Amino acid sequence: MSTWLVTGTSRGLGLEIVKQLLERGDNVAATTRSAHRLTEALGATPRDRLLPLELDLTDESAVDVAVCAAEDRFGGIDVVVNNAGYGFLGAVEETTAAEVQRMFQVQVFGVWNMLRAVLPGMRTAGRGHIINVSSVLGLTAFPGWALYCSAKYALEGLSDALAGEVAGFGIKVNVVEPGYTRTDFLRPPALSLPEHHVEGYDAIRTMTDAHLAMGGTQLGDPVKVATAIIEVGDSGKAPLHQLLGSDSYRLGQDRVRALAQDFEAGRKTAVSTDTTPA
Question: Which UniProt keywords are listed (predicted)?
Fold first, then answer.
């Protein structure tokens, strides 16, 4: 039996992870904006090993209290899954300062708050596992997804650096990058849209309409994605970056090739800036 702390659990992928962990007998501290919504969504799933935690991840002191409550209840935390987040689809010019701030508060600063809270206990124990749920849009980018991508790109950089920092303490870090998955992610409130549209971005309007109509047709199976994330936590053998979904794998490979082409195309200029050119 392990103890997991999972964020963003009242719907979608986070809820499915909690269900599977409880059904197999693990302890779960589950953060959510609404404990009632979480317990209602769990239905008949066993709950004797569940600690629901109503939490605003952007409130650092509240995160500290929640982590202490989980450690006190279960004697420590083995695996943290930073899953909370939402999407935003709109042009850069259409995003307000408040929308940019909110995105980073939830998807970057909220993760940072959680990490600062859980790492001391993991260092003391000499073990632990952090799984950060990113997206294939943390590796590549498309017009209209700039705000979401920028937050996920930040999460990717945070995860890469963190992995090197904590490896010596026996703490494992993974970042997972799912593709399109059949959750409610492409429907409000999981998907936010700009308050005001700017004329001329017709392609983004068309793409937005297509995404809003996509619900239920995505390639990824949320049950299988949740199972894969749990396996990442169980095995400890997954690569630092674990793609999930054939669409994610394809887009990731496309991005690697595009970057390699860019690097080679710019090689002459790159080496020309050395004190002694190569």
Answer: Oxidoreductase
